[in-house]
Amino acid sequence: MACQFGAIDAAMLIQSRLNKAVDLEQSLPVVDKKQLQLHISQDIVSIISDQFDINLLLETVLEGIHRGIGMDRTIFSLLVTDKQSLKERLSLGWRKDAYEHKVIFNIAETPPNIFFHVLAGTQAFWAKPLVNAKLYTLRDINVVGKNECFIMPVFFNKIPIGLIYTDRAISNEPLTEEDFNAFKYFAQQANIGLAMYRMQRIVNGKKDSGIDQSGSY
Predict the structure, then answer these.
(1) Taking the alpha carbons of 55, 58, 62, 64 in that order, is the dihedral positive or negative?
(2) What percent of the chain has pLDDT over 90?
């Protein structure tokens, strides 16, 4: 276009910068997911066994899922007081109009949606639109779209308090069994950490109050 308008020098400069950008992208090191997952796993073990910061643990778990597996959107959401919805507590890769805006997941029992289905169980769930079409309500689609996703409930004192959700809704890259196994591992670390956190509070004689949306533990 620059050439068509007679800006030959500008066209040459634009092309030169494009070539440099391509060269830079090609020179960037390829991230080894296995190595990254191992590194983040070691960080999680260190957090649980040493300093034990529950906020840091949850942030690291989300990082393991998001970066270690290579997901587009990852979120940890907590049940609100009336148990009718889940509100974002931590998220990565979520495109929002403002940071202050929190993602809200509705929980529908009749008919059950994907979030109700997950909270009613104890295991990780690989939701697939072609297989689980009835679980994707219009309200869910308006919030997260209709994509394959991994979801796992999070427990405190054996009671579901929220869930971890992740997908590749932006890149539309397919999910694999290997991805699902890695997701289950990292999400389970959150549940193990919360169980240990509860035990620690009991030993220290603190009230077993759990987690609330204000950020208090």
Answers:
(1) positive
(2) 57
208 and 198 in contact (C-beta within 8 Å)? yes
Q: Residue 77: which residues within 8 A CB-CB, separation 6 or more?
A: 86, 87, 88, 89, 103, 105, 162, 163, 164, 165
pLDDT tens sequence across 129-184:
999 999 999 999 999 999 999 999 999 988 999 999 999 999 999 999 999 999 99
d(CA 138, CA 20): 45
Q: Sketch the domain layout of the chain as residue ranges.
A: 32-203
Asked whether the beta carbons of 148 and 172 are under 8 A apart, the reply is: no
What is the rounded CA–CA span in Å between residue 61 and residue 150?
Answer: 14
Q: Measured between alpha carbons, how far is residue 106 from residues 49, 77, 79, 148, 169 in Å?
A: 35, 11, 10, 18, 19
For domain 32-203, give its CATH number from 3.30.450.40, 3.40.50.20, 3.40.50.970, 1.10.10.10: 3.30.450.40
- CB–CB of 97/120 below 8 Å? no
| DSSP, res 28 | S
| CA 62 – CA 47 distance, rounded (Å) | 14
Q: State the pTM of this model.
A: 0.79
DSSP string, 61-78: HHHIIIIIHT-SEEEEEE
Long-range contacts of 205-210 (CB under 8 A, 24+ apart): 208/157, 210/156, 210/157, 210/159, 210/161
